[in-house]
Amino acid sequence: MDYAVLRFIWWLLIGVLLIGFMVMDGHDMGVGTLSPFVGKTDSERRAAINSVAPHWDGNQVWFITAGGAVFAAWPLVYATSFSMLYIAILAVLWTIFLRAPAFDYRSKVNDVQWRSLWDWVLFIGSAVPPLLFGVAFGNVILGIPFHFDDSMRLVSDATSPLSGFLHLLSPFALLCGLVSLSMITAHGGVYLSLRTTDDLQKRSKRAALIFSGLTIVLFALAGLYVVFINGYIATNLNPNGESDPLAKTVVVASGAWLNNYANYPATIAVPVVAFLGFLLSWIYTRMNLFGRAFIFSSVGMAGVVLTAAVSIFPFVLPSSSSPSSSLTLWDATSSKHTLELMLIAALIFTPIVLTYTSWVYKIMRGKLTAAKIEEDSKAYY
């Protein structure tokens, strides 16, 4: 298979893994974010938590696989992003670590303060990761300060790790973080509406409507913001060439991230899909058709992730301090042989993951009520 085609396929596959992570892990993070607020009693909060408790750790497979795919397919991107975003990534990992004990320990002790503590630990472990993932996406669009020297050694252009972390918290990046947080919260609200009944369902529905609408507004604001920030234009790229980021020429221009939409008008369908997904999710939630609302919420999330990818294509990790060191999918990949072997593995194992995930959700489907939790308390978290 042609090297350029393989590179493009892996750009698509890593996008699919990120979308899978946002959709699958997104709804259980959304539930964890909402549970202290929509659950007014201990039994209601347990019903909310148990709607995702059988699935949340399995959904982490998408996150782990995406990280592994970036490591194997885009080693320069992996090394650069994990070095330049070290503190932020540690913050994400440590907050994700909090979720496991929150699920497992919460109901071990029948004490109000104990359970309230773990409810808020679960909230932090569910709300902070998507917020920081959105901030990371925002900084990718803005560019990260790094460069490669003549011997291809990675050099950070931040004055210190702390200043580098604070540099990440720009207004645009924080706006992207709010987009990410609002859409996973909306997604979680729709899922809770699908899995619960009575007052818990009503409060979950209200949250889904609020955050779906907020996602549409914030996503539109982020799109307007992109018009006024610098984008990157690459020349001398060789899709079949060696992975040498310094072989190309990069020009920085205001609004350049919109060039792909002008050059390839069909790509405008991607952000349109994002808007329509959340709009239809809002409409179907209003109509109490929560299954359809969940599907379109997933479509909207996919549209948001793809909008970021299409906007900066072919860039994967731009450099704000040394544009010529920016990484693209044409010059930051592993060898052709590595990509071929990975593709074979992906074609074998991805259907297996999808099959067992679908089977588990089918087995665990059905409504969870506070009364059901109280009747058989020891059977649930």
Tell me the major beta sheet: 2 strands, antiparallel
| Radius of gyration, taken over Cα atoms and rounded to an integer in Å | 21 Å
If strands are numbered along the chain, what order do they take across the biggest sheet?
1-2
Shape estimate: globular
Tell me what portion of residues adopts beta-strand conformation. Answer: 5-15%
Q: Give the number of DSSP strands.
A: 6
Kindly state the mean pLDDT as a whole number? 88
Q: How many distinct folded domains?
A: 1
Element-level helix/strand string: HHHHHHHEEHHHEEHHHEEHH
Sequence stretches where pLDDT stays below 50 over 5 or more residues: none
- What distance separates the N and C termini? 49 Å
Q: Helical element count?
A: 15
Structural class by SSE content? mainly alpha
- What is the percent of helical residues? 55-70%
Account of the protein in words:
By secondary structure, the protein is mostly helical. The protein contains 15 helices and six strands. It has one domain. Strand 1 and strand 2 form a beta hairpin. The longest helix has 36 residues.
